[in-house]
Design goal:
The complex is a heterotrimer of chains A (about 250), B (about 90) and C (about 270). Chain A has about 250 residues and is α/β, with parallel strands linked by helices. The longest helix of chain A is centred in the last third of the chain and has 20 residues. With about 90 residues, chain B is of the alpha+beta class.
Chain lengths: ~250, ~90, ~270
């Protein structure tokens, strides 16, 4: 593993004071690669917090161009970049924040076509996709390659996060055996709500990468920012899950 | 008897509330409650809660007093129970 | 029964006829002036040899038959076997507005044995754009107006009326004897009250409800779906009537007849969704 240089030691000094993390944890982060599916309301702050915390490499996958309706929440997108590719805008902003960060910007959303290769090149995957089809594709690839999947989702003023460790925890299709009915591409969203899910997810990922251990393996954290109620619920593996029962 | 029902995901959107207290006949089952809610809040709500095969939808989580229930053997409810319906979400 | 005879139904009554008897010889023997011959639910023009189990009805156009044969003649166009089943059945209808009045009429026309209907309201002018009442019934309690109208359509249906507001206490008492329950309210919270108090007391007994029937969206958006173990739901997967969207006879009628047909299928032991 590559050790920290002087600039990195200075930059991450305060977070290395965290009990159980330390310089050893920081070195593990520096040598890690994370795949973030989409860099919108959820994936944007995931990428931003991972970049700020000093992850070595990010692979960002997001298609499309910046629109006005992105700017209430997609914190890596900027007004001057309207009409230009989203993933380039995200990469540019992340490099401004952390010039040591290696960023690979893939101008496409995760699909069955690219998921195997993208997951193969990462140590950990952050699922921030807005449709179940993309989420299921990532889940299948992560289970097949035994890569941890931090699954973050939100709707309105609510969000949820779980950590999927293939072979140990339920997978996404244990939780959702089918694509749930009635889910639409357009959903109500505040940036602060998606950002909260992102921050919960990032800390799960940092804890897994640094050896502190995740807290939401086999459990789903739910929060409702309308009522400010937070709860975690145990999840069960489905013995007949077509995705992970053979894993 | 009275039970509290909490809604998460699109169910709260369709019911236009996060939580409510409901009067139920003594000995009513979870199924009876879910059928009543579906009748009240409409087909889109019912479609999230139930499959076409008369079962509670596997992708919806149901908690009674914060404990997940086995959806294939839904329990009888008691006075004061808190029922939480967690509909699947995927917003990113 | 003699070996050289077969058993048929003539005007819903059993009859033995000789093997080889044809439709037209049957007409000659029983009703020579009949100008419509209905065989197994469908009118036929060609003579044919009768087979065991055939159901034949002989009709003379314009003739108002006596009470003893009227019921059989009214059932002439039913799918064979349907009338015998529904004649023994009881259906409850909660609310007899746009949905309930149309459902009651559809079920009365096919000769349901007994209807139990409940509603607290009276007929108002604004009801008449969709509800099955008449101008001279304005001000009359709906259950009474409906009973009168049903008697003019099919006097053989027993109609039990309740002029009252339904609640958790009286629902199980009034509707305990029904084979299928129908929800035809307009207030959403009343729908839940009915479903919970009916299924809570009679688990598994079917209840057919409706939602999403406002306005004039395409008819084909309305479907019948099984929801819970008791719950059959008719609607368009949209939420209930919003301000700016009215309730009008055509689409309310589509939903009502979805409900009535779901009731019929349930009574016949068939899957309401298909």
């Amino acid at each position: 593993m590559n050790p920290l240089n002087a600039e990195e030691k200075a930059t991450y000094e305060w977070q290395m004071w965290t009990r159980g993390f330390g310089e050893a944890g920081q070195v593990k982060l520096k040598n890690a690669t994370a795949l973030v599916s989409r860099t919108g309301g959820l994936g944007g702050p995931v990428a931003q917090e991972l970049a700020a915390a000093g992850i070595g490499k990010l692979i960002l996958a997001h298609g499309g161009k910046v629109k006005h309706s992105d700017l209430n929440r997609q914190i890596l997108m900027t007004h001057d970049w309207l009409g230009k590719p989203r993933v380039e805008c995200a990469a540019r902003r992340l490099r401004e924040l952390n010039p040591r960060l290696e960023v690979e910007a893939v101008p496409a959303n995760i699909s069955e076509d690219n998921v195997t290769d993208l997951v193969d090149r990462a140590h950990i995957v952050f699922d921030c996709a807005p449709l179940f089809e993309g989420r299921f594709a990532m889940n299948r690839a992560c289970v097949a390659q035994k890569k941890p999947l931090i699954d973050c989702a939100m709707f309105g003023l609510e969000g949820q996060v779980t950590t999927i460790l293939p072979g140990e925890t339920p997978c996404l299709q244990c939780i959702y055996p089918e694509i749930p009915p009635g889910w639409k591409r357009e959903f109500p969203v505040f940036g602060a709500v998606s950002c909260a899910a992102a921050c919960f997810g990032v800390m799960e990922g940092i804890k897994w990468l640094s050896g502190m251990g995740p807290s939401l393996a086999g459990r789903m954290l739910y929060y409702d920012m309308r009522t400010m109620r937070v709860r975690t619920v145990p999840l069960r593996r489905r013995p007949d899950c077509p995705i992970c029962s053979a894993a | 008897m009275r039970v509290t029902v909490q809604y998460m995901g699109q169910l709260g959107h369709l019911a236009e509330r996060s939580e409510e207290s409901r009067e139920l006949p003594e000995g009513a089952s979870l199924l009876s409650l879910l059928e009543g809610l579906s009748a009240q809040y409409g087909e889109a709500f019912g479609h999230i809660v139930f499959t076409g095969e008369n079962r509670i939808r596997p992708s919806m989580m149901v908690l009674v007093n914060d404990v997940p229930v086995e959806k294939t053997t839904p329990p009888v409810l008691r006075d004061g129970d808190q029922v939480t319906l967690l509909a699947a979400i995927a917003g990113g | 029964m003699m070996a050289d005879s077969i058993q048929i139904m003539l005007s819903e009554r059993p009859l033995s006829v000789a093997v080889g008897t044809t439709l037209f010889t049957l007409r000659e023997a029983h009703k020579p002036d009949a100008d419509v011959v209905v065989l197994n639910g469908a009118p036929v023009r060609e003579d044919r040899v009768l087979e065991a189990g055939d159901a034949v009805v002989l009709i003379r156009r314009g003739e108002i038959p006596g009470r003893d044969t009227l019921e059989a003649l009214m059932a002439a166009r039913h799918t064979p076997g349907v009338h015998a089943v529904i004649k023994r059945a009881t259906v409850g209808i909660a609310g007899v507005g746009g949905l309930g009045s149309a459902i009651a009429i559809a079920l009365a026309r096919i000769g349901l044995g007994k209807l139990i209907v409940a509603d607290f309201d009276v007929v108002e002018p604004s009801n008449l754009n969709r509800q099955q009442y008449f101008i001279d019934q304005i001000g009359q309690p709906k259950v009474e107006a409906l009973r009168d109208n049903l008697a003019r359509i099919n006097p053989y249906v027993e109609v039990e009326t309740h002029l009252l507001r339904l609640n958790r206490e009286n629902v199980p008492a009034l509707f305990g004897g029904v084979d299928v329950m129908v929800e035809a309210f307009d207030a959403a919270d009343q729908k839940a009250m009915l479903v919970e108090s009916f299924t809570g007391r009679f688990p598994g007994r079917p209840i057919v409800v409706a939602s999403g029937l406002a306005g004039h969206m395409p008819s084909n958006t309305i479907v019948t779906r099984k929801m819970g173990p008791s719950l059959v739901m008719v609607g368009d997967l949209m939420t209930a009537a919003a301000p700016g969207t009215g309730l009008m006879a055509p689409r309310v009628g589509v939903a009502a007849h979805h409900q009535a047909n779901a009731v019929l299928r349930l009574l016949l032991g068939e899957d309401p969704e298909g």
